[in-house]
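Researcher: For the record, we're logging two predictions in this thread. I'll number them. Prediction 1 follows.
Model: Prediction 1, sequence and structure:
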Amino acid sequence: MKVLVITNLAPTKENPMSGIFVVKRLQQYAKFCVDYLAISLGFEERWDVRLLKKLLRKSSYTRLDRLLNVKFEPILIPWNLAKLLLHRTHLIDNAKLTQEYAHRIEFKLSDFQFDLIHAHGMYEIPAAEIAYFLARKHDKPFVVSLHGSDVNLLMPKRKQRYIEILESASKCIFVSNKLLETAKSFGYSGKNAVVIPNGYDPEIFKPMDKNKVRKELGIHKDNYKYVGFVGNLISIKRADKLEKIFNLIAKEIPETFFIVVGDGPLREKIKKETKGLNIIFTGRLPQKDVAKYMNAMDVMVLPSRNEGFGCVVLEAQACGTCVIGSSNGGIPEAIGFEEYVVEEGDNFEERFAQRVVEVLKKGYNAAKLIARAQEYTWRRIVEMEIDVYREVWSRKI
């Protein structure tokens, strides 16, 4: 079987971990005798866009053509300031943008001999819309994977178009039941839907001796508890409230060391507000280093305001580390244990911090967490997606 994969979620030079869940899927394809061509969509920023970003201290992004032996074919559209502003305000003609990407993809290919098309994402750059256009033109089945922001943030603004594309797909894969229910609340029927979550790499995320790894990382302190966060330092992750949560925990357990793995626009604000705490900011790290810091933690927090599923939950659990998260999006499904989920509502930060303190004092069964995570290895997840491919293709022939 040969699959054309189209994604707007792909690694960049500045953030190689962007779209890592797509990369990890593609790594597994050879084990199932699936051949693929992966197209990553992006913009080629003109001088005026680069200048504006420099003035605003925002990063530009350069698509990588290879990561972890997974090859991508970047398709880039020239992007000036006028286009950027129209795109950000959703005034740009999406049909023209879709056709331009589609024509560039066709020009890149020597033929269109694919059994099906699989699109990841409908956010910012509409990969699913491009797949829909190409599927109709070349009479191919297409599958869409929805990961979170595409449904939670953009679908309310483009309901009619989203519904048209999702209903036309051979299959729609949602990473959580909650995400599927959200799409249905906007008018999608769900008749062609299947829920397949993200997974984790058991070769990277596995238990290590906590004291030993803390010493290796240079953060060992006798009789200290370790609490961490892994993710982008942005508002939707509730990173703006980490300072409050961390300070409330430290008030109850002063011998607590905090670890923040990740980066984003809120980093300097959080650093300033947590200056009096025992805390480190690692920035973005390769997954093998993320695994070490996850192992160093006693508890990892995920207080997000919304989340499609949350790969980091499974990764931490696979390390034997307890994750406490909010009740938003697919987080409860990812965590799998009701006692580690804090309901959204009044005094959320206070209740969240208190739950962390209780778990730090009481402890938890790490073996139970590890056993659950093992149900979600990337091999198992991709096996389910390949079954979807086979079902779709059998209908076509």
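Researcher: Logged. Prediction 2.
Model: Prediction 2, sequence and structure:
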Amino acid sequence: MSDLSPTPDRPGLHVSKPSPNAPAQGSAVCHCGASATATGDAQVRALVEGWNGNHGSAHGRK
């Protein structure tokens, strides 16, 4: 499988949690240039909420 991590050429959000006991990991790169990473369930949840509210398709909202 190819690397699913977002890049400036392929912006997006990637979240992984290999097992129920492992901490979640996430990374995000937006077409606006913003990027972030997070480790731990709470931090990844905040990353996803920030992405949904401020990046990705949120840039198209009026």
